[in-house]
Amino acid sequence: MPAAASLAPLPAADLVAQIEALHPASFGWALACCRRDRESAADVLQQAYCRILSGQARFDGRSALRTWLFGVIRLTALEHRRWSWLPYRLAMALRLTAPSPERGAAPDEAVEAHEKTAHLSRALAELAARQREVLHLVFYEELTIQEASRVMGVSLGAARQHYERGKRNLSARLAEKEGRR
Amino acid sequence: MSDDESQLRDQFQGLKQEDERAAPSFQATWRTDGSRPLASRPWFWVAIAAPASAIVVLVAAQTLRSRPLQPFAVAARHEITASDNPLEFLLEAPDNSRFTPSLPMPPGWGSGLFE
Questions:
Q1: Residue A160's pLDDT is what?
Q2: For residue A181, what pLDDT is reported?
Q3: How far is it, in rounded angstroms, from Cα A8 to Cα A49?
Q4: Does residue A169 lie in a domain region?
Q5: Which of A136, B92, B102, B109 could form a disulfide with A32 if both were Cys (CB 3.0 to 4.6 A apart)?
Q6: Does the ipTM exceed 0.90?
């Protein structure tokens, strides 16, 4: 019997505590899966939690909790995107959703930092889904490429390819956006 | 790690800090009583409005197609013949009270003559 299969599922209270500790990272991952749309990310995260609560998604201890949770969020986001593609496009066309975060009065440094993250956010939204996902998992969640490949459900070789292409594309897009400033 | 990668990592970490500030609380998200109210989501209103407006357009198109546009002009062109006499219909019908012609009504029918 493999060693991973002998690990018992976590008790419910422990599981909830660990999921709570991962909540900010989970929200970040949900954002990456929803093209940085906060409204959709909040929906997706809540649907993923509902699945865990209702027992539709069960942690069996075969992988790290974070890998499993991110996998649940990713699948929920895919399903969400499938069902809400048309309404989302219509809402965007009618300007019903506001993708860019609000800006308040802030010191120059904070404004500059905010602009940088806004550039990054927009550049990420323009990347292919797989490239965006792997870059997010590596640079944002600080996973290794191997861990990222498990979350994404692809081979290590494919994850490496997405990583390299994504890095190139993202750098090019960021340079383009910096040039426009 | 290359310079390019460490630069990207710094930018991602800046994004992460912003996201953490804007993240909804765990308690608000981890709920057992279902999801947020539907009316607070834009796509919900789009999903309601799209089929509703399609139905209105279809009904309007159907009404315009089936409605006689110039009823008075059509009646004026119609020649009155013996077969158009409403009295003949009445005489042929076995029970006047139950007589409900399915054919188009002749001119003058229902004008108050037999009421």
A1: 94
A2: 57
A3: 21
A4: yes
A5: A136
A6: no
